[in-house]
Write a structure and sequence with these properties.
With 328 residues, this protein is an alpha/beta fold. Helix content is 40%, strand content 20%. Helix 2 packs across helix 10 (268-283), helix 3 (79-91) packs across helix 4 and helix 5 packs parallel to helix 6.
């Protein structure tokens, strides 16, 4: 039998005290005491966002399965389905929820008062927060102020195709950021003297219907809104645009995987690194209501010259000199 060592007053001897400390340290790394983060991702096709989040957390010292548990919830569907996934995350006992995109943010806010960190469109226009400086609720995070970004997209498209007078705009009307973006786009179009032809799609079936309408008889150029549902269906959308042989502007670099002409949008790695920082601060005790919302710090302009040659579209030098990446 192993003898327990004690000091003169009955206290644990140093050897046993060291063992106790080791046991406590081991307990601190056990699954029950790990930080628990839930991720609500409406579309599996936006996996690059997840990779960027993992990288951002890793740079802050979080390793999945070692000192942090990440509960992933991924599905495309209705707002009701998104809320069901959010409820499932809450019931799993997570400490904070990361919401990717405006629909996911809306679902999380409708479901829980737990801390939420979002990567989404304009949070004030979408009623996710009172202001950028003082969110005031249980959500904060990183914002792509899309109503302003959509005007930049139209400017690039007008520079690319100055003779285009009818701009096909593919958008998801169920996205909370869609109405303010549409309003800004219409205002910018009026200034440039062009007409917006809006095609709407809130699910995969409606996307099929919408992209069948993309043709030269409908419009002279195409503008795709910054929505994760549309990103998830990028192969179909890109194929329809190429078939119509129309100049088109896309909101994310990831569209180039499907073969598109030009994109301008947020750098996912930089944006999700900012999200990871918010997660870290909240896990350490900060309140979302007191953390000012940041805007995405970096945007990328990408041009595919191969596709330009294939479509017979000349890219203006004024765009090429500003491009962050030119695919040759």
């Amino acid at each position: 039998m192993k003898k327990i060592l004690t000091g003169p007053c009955g206290f644990l001897a140093p050897a046993l005290f060291s063992t106790a400390l080791f046991s406590s340290a081991a307990l601190a790394d056990s699954p029950s005491t790990m930080a628990r983060v839930g991720v609500l991702n409406p579309h599996t096709a936006s996996a690059s966002l997840e990779d960027a989040l993992r990288q951002g957390l890793s740079q802050l010292g979080y390793v999945e399965g070692k000192n942090i548990v990440i509960e992933w919830r991924r599905a495309a569907g209705t707002p009701e389905a998104m809320r069901a996934l959010a409820t499932d995350l809450v019931n799993s006992g997570v400490d904070v929820i990361v919401a990717m995109g405006s629909p996911a943010t809306r679902a999380a806010l409708d479901t829980t008062t737990k801390p939420i960190v979002f990567f989404a469109g304009d949070p004030v226009a979408s009623h996710f927060a009172m202001s950028l400086a003082k969110p005031g609720g249980n959500a904060t995070g990183v914002s792509v102020v899309y109503p302003e970004l959509i005007m930049k997209h139209l400017e690039f498209l007008h520079e690319l195709a100055p003779r285009a007078r009818r701009i096909i705009f593919l958008t998801n009307p169920s996205n909370p950021g869609a109405p303010p973006a549409q309003q800004k786009l219409e205002q910018a179009a009026a200034t440039l003297g062009v007409k917006i032809v809006t095609l709407t799609a809130s699910n995969a079936g409606e996307i099929e219907v919408a992209i069948r309408s993309i043709s030269r008889s409908v419009g002279d150029a195409v503008l795709v809104s910054g929505d994760l549902l549309l990103l998830a269906n990028r192969q179909k959308i890109a194929q329809a645009v190429r078939k119509a042989r129309l100049p088109a502007m896309f909101p994310f670099k990831q569209y180039h995987e499907a073969g598109v002409l030009i994109s301008y949008g947020p750098d996912y790695d930089a944006g999700m690194g900012q999200v990871a920082t918010y997660v870290d601060r909240i896990l350490k005790g900060a309140k979302p209501s007191e953390l000012p919302i940041e805007q995405v710090s970096k945007y990328e302009l990408v041009v595919d010259l191969r596709l330009a040659r294939e479509l017979g579209i000349e890219i203006p030098q004024s765009i090429l000199v500003r491009a962050d990446e030119v695919i040759k």
